[in-house]
Write a structure and sequence with these properties.
CATH topology of the largest domain in chain C: MetI-like fold
Largest interface: A-C, 62 and 56 residues
CATH superfamily of the largest domain in chain C: MetI-like
Structural class of chain A: alpha+beta
Helix content of chain A: 10-25%
Order of helices and strands of chain C: HHHEEHHHHHHHHH
CATH architecture of the largest domain in chain C: Orthogonal Bundle
Distance between the termini of chain A: 32 Å
Number of helices of chain C: 12
Chains: A alpha+beta (596), B mainly alpha (303), C mainly alpha (326)
Strand content of chain C: under 5%
Helix content of chain C: over 70%
Number of domains of chain C: 2
Distance between the termini of chain C: 9 Å
Largest sheet of chain C: 2 strands, antiparallel
Radius of gyration of chain A: 24 Å
Number of strands of chain C: 2
Oligomer: heterotrimer
Chain lengths: 596, 303, 326
Amino acid sequence: MRNRGRLGAVGLAVGALLLSACSSGGGGGGGNGNEPPKGPDKNRADNYSLGTKADSTGPAPEVPGSKKGGTVNVLQRDAFTYLDPAQIYYADQLTVQMLYNRSLTSYKIDEKGQVKLVGDLATDTGKVSDGGKTWTYTLKDNLKFEDGTPITSADVRQAVERLYAPWATDGPLYIPQWLSGEGQEFRKALPDGPYKGKHLPASVLDTPDEKTIVFHFQQPHADTPYAVAMPNIGAVPAKGGKDTGKNYNTRPVSSGPYKIETLKAGKQLTLVRNENWDPDSDPIRHQYPDRFDIRFGVQEPDSGRRLLADRGSDKNAMSFSNAVTIEVGPSVKNDAGTTSRTFNEVQPYVDYMAINMRRIKDKKVREALAYALPNGQILGQLGGPNAGQIAGNLLAPSLAGWKDSDPFGKKAKPNGDPVKARALLKEAGKEGQEIVYAYPNTTEYQKISVVVAQALDKAGFTVQKKEIDSNNYSTEISKVNKKIDIHRASWGADWPVGSTVVPPLFHGRGVADGGQNYWLLKDAGVDAEIDRIKGITDVKTASGEWVELSEEILTEHVPGVPIFYNRQWSIWGSGLGGVKYHSVYGTTDPTGVFVK
Amino acid sequence: MWRRFKRDRAGVVSAYVVIFFFAAALLAPVISWLYGKNPYTTYGIERPGLLNEFFYPAKPNGGIDSEFWFGLEPGLGRDVFTQLFYGMRTSLMIATATTVLCVVTGILIGVTAGYLGGRTDYFLGRFIDLLLAFPSQLSFVAFTPVVYALFVSPEKETPTYLRVITLIIVMWALGWMGLARILRGQVLSLREREFVEAAKVTGASPWRIIRKELLPNLWTPLLVQSTLMLPTFVTVEAGLSFLGVGIIEPTPDWGRMFAAGARHYENDITYMFFPGIAMVIFVVAFNLLGDSVRDAFDPKTKR
Amino acid sequence: MLRFLVRRSLGALVIIFLICAITFFLFFALPSEPALLACGKNCGDPALIEQINRNLGLHEPVPVQFWHYVVGIFAGRDMEVGNCPAPCLGYSFNDSQPVWETILDRYPTTLSLAFGGAAVFLVTGVAIGMIAAARRGTATDKFFSSLSLIGNSLQIYFIGVIAMWLFVDTWGVFDRPEYFPLTENPAKWFGGMLLPWLVLSIIFIANYSRMTRSQMIEQLNEEHVRTARAKGMSGRTVFFRYAWRGAIAPIVTIVGIDLGSLFGGAMITEFTFTLHGLGRLAVNSVTENDLPMLMGVMLFSCTAIVIANIVVDALYAYIDPRVRLS
């Protein structure tokens, strides 16, 4: 999934034009504190597990103190581009779809932050056969769409087959690619999607009865339970002409506890109770408030300030993905009354400084870069330890089997190690090496460019800073022939296993314009290793191997430098209860929220 | 005229203030040399203890002390005192250059259109309409990157002077039409007046009529508009660097400082205070000066 | 008059066409690729990019695309999303909503903001200017001049948020700014827009008070005004009938320019007060490389500006009979 929080903030800085209120003469606290906020870390790998059939049975355990009724106001910075589950990939939209869309499996998160993957529409996380190639799911009883029609296997087939239509380009495409072929090959299996009366053959996607769906993949895929938790592997009405293809986006049919009442594109979305949702079938969601009133266009400092002020209708307000930013951060932290209505958690997103391996061919130079970069100072321009945690390796701590390692000593020396870097550079005979450093032209990244250039300068590099119009930044950095040596890149895992990080980022296949192999790493050994681990049918074994491979890539190839793991700092109004962190999406989970 | 100006006390004070600002901007390197700091060193990052965990100045009042007279910048921890003077230098230079360009273009086009009238007026008028019809803010945001792309090779760092020139061009291209229109309107009504007609009858050349009869009567709108224009360009430039198309780090910039100060004022009001107050004083003084000069120029003004 | 209007309207059409063309072609001069914003994590696949470009109609040569765009405005066109009836401005690249309808949805907010703000700054600015002119050289004059100038030197993103903090969050004397349709609830509409109007007008007032002041002083010294006074007319009559009439023309000119630009959306004001007008739409269309939306907003705002200009020129002739419409 992708994080619109900070990645989006790279967009036009108008958001940053806006500021927040309250005032003080500055001051407070001493030292460049780099201590992360206290509290148990809810984003650790051992918190994740696969649930059993019992875990998958509804209803969800009552939230203590919960009450029915009321309206929850939601303040969001960006309008949701997509409501159609087929197209959703961004964290904010992944969060809202939980309210009106159910997938075959979903993440169940308890108040301690333990995450279990459980059956959602399906009775469990799937039965595997045929050496990992065939996965069978059975639908629960009493599942209905918002109009009362029962959800059958045909509706799940519809959801999958519509991903073959030419417009379905923005969402995750794991399942269709696993069923019918890599890249865009799969679309040839059903060029018009299900809209012209054609379907995938039963040997690929089978619905032997109303309740059973069978996936016949071309290769074994141990990750299937996670892949069918993506929102587009759910149910879309196959009958009744409700699925209008691309236009379904404006009015998707609900299978969850809420349904869409009105959508004013770009401005407002209201969700109301779906009376045809059966709580006994749902192990995750509740239906406490009468409605959700979601407003778009509220900049982060503004939402932070409003939620901190806690007045009027903002008492019952929250945000899925707006974070507490540097403008209000100190006030929130200094106000003891807010501790019960905030959290600050590590997200599954990692910020890197990618190194262009086609241009910086000498590994010693890349190592010198890794030692020289001032992670702590970079993070400082974004809000310091409250906005992120200095990263030692390529994978986020939430990934299964994650190990804490720090080959370049970034945690010990958050301001970089210019001495060591200089020595390495000298060893390579590349003193004064020119580095073209590209960054998006926003307020924050301009400042970051200052600390980066300064640190590299100290280590003996000659830096050419190259600002890129923030609208075109992602285009520019993902060109294969980019005239850039280092640049910022970011990645989030789709599910907490290394298979959604290592292959897309480091397989040679990703070296393409628009691809995510930002470092242009093309190494036969790495590719072979990736292909080997992909074939492992046990998730747990595979997870460990991914972690090891990522470690090997970092130390053997140094394709980039991990900078920090993002943190989500959220605040909500005092009138709401049951707000918790969704560690897989890195956002605030609305499924148990109630109005006090 | 000079004597009349000297009698206007507010005008004289404003003049001193404006001169002070321009002098301070010009002398920024000298000031920073005397003061012993520079606007580029990130003191706060280099010396632990100066910034807190949010990278705001750790000491109260924005980190003001005997060493950093105006405190430290949040985030990078640079010295505000020298940043401000160097920033004024950048901003005033850009604003002055743009104003001069706009005034010259405005006079040329406005007077030509108004005086010649007819077809020339029609086409110049439509050209002005065309440019005026561009929503200016949106055009700045959408088109400035295109201008930068014209200038810059994709590999090298964009030199600061190119950014400055681009900014001046962009602000100039959409900045001169207001003045031109006003001048055109004035000339349009002036040219029907008796004294212009009289000059025409006596066979004066158009150039002479423009110079001797029209321009003296245009001083008022010209001065009022250009004294409003210069400080406006200072603030427009601030907005532009904020929209990501202006002068970028590490070149100090007054407008950007004010914008950043406004953003951080909740936690570090001191940081907003210096560039903000300086800008208010400058804008007010510059405008009052304009008023006084206008009064002094205008022979009809009674005092 | 009719001839003037017809002629100017034709000229306006040419201007609008030129601006559209310039915007369209400049968009493609940018090193951006809209398709990359619609491919999620699948962007590394050239086949997919090609597919998206075909979906968005970007696979054709730019002039051909422009031709389709222009034809669509008058005749409608069939698009990948479905038929788009005239006036067809296409569908947003970003959220596939019809551009025309989105703009119609946002325009009332922009109009309310522009007219309300203009009313405030015009009344206040002209009043201050006239007082200052009447009391020329006194402390009152200097006080008002300085006050409006201080307002002018501040920025909306600064005063706006301070005002919100004080008047909405702390004292609660204003409603939280929000747009309600005028036709549904005029009281709420007024309450929701009042603070944005006031803040928006602050940066404009100085312009008007200064212009008014200097023009009034100028006019008071004109022969005909002095003659009127010499004839024994009351100071009030002279001030409002003679001097004011002469001073109004340049003010009308700036009102035209300012209103025109406000009709194109007040970006910073809209962001500061979380209003959904054309300005926000414009900024988003730029950040998202959303060509149809950018074109739509450009078209709307430049049309508004052009119309405002024609009106100003017509008024000019009405106010100052010496100016002949041509």
